[in-house]
Amino acid sequence: KIAPTYNKVVCQLHFRSYLPGPMDFYIDFARRAAHALNMPCSGTIYLPTKTTRWTVIRGPFVHKKSQENFERKTHKRLLVIKDTNRTVVDRWLWYLTQNCPAGVGMKVTLWEWNELGIGQKMLDKAKENEER
């Protein structure tokens, strides 16, 4: 595990799947790829599992009182990447999307951190463009 230097979150990667086995295997793959790129990556964060239940009538006429119950569980996990260059994160995400197994969904949240005073620099550039 690589320790973060400044502890600034750069990327959060959410995983969803109906089957936890392939998803956990793929998360281990993603963590090993992050380690190979020297990216500080958190451990697997388990998010609450969403359970969806519904009831269906077996027959529309005589068998109305006979019903079937179904259940589907959506398992969710989270990986957090810290203190990494944006281009490295983009390359890592491209590699993960190319090797993603069927049945595993991913959602990416990216952050960009700018230095202090960026607003003043933007105003100065706008003034220079107006003078020209």
Automatic annotation (TrEMBL):
An annotated GO BP: translation
Give the record's GO CC terms: ribonucleoprotein complex; ribosome
- The residue ranges crossing the membrane are none
Q: Which UniProt keywords apply?
A: Ribonucleoprotein, Ribosomal protein
Which residue range or ranges hold the Small ribosomal subunit protein uS10 domain?
Answer: 12-109
Instruction: Return any one Pfam family short name.
Output: Ribosomal_S10
Q: Which GO terms describe its molecular function?
A: structural constituent of ribosome
Q: Which family does it belong to?
A: Belongs to the universal ribosomal protein uS10 family.
Q: What is this protein called?
A: Small ribosomal subunit protein uS10m
What is the taxonomic lineage of the source species? Eukaryota, Fungi, Fungi incertae sedis, Mucoromycota, Glomeromycotina
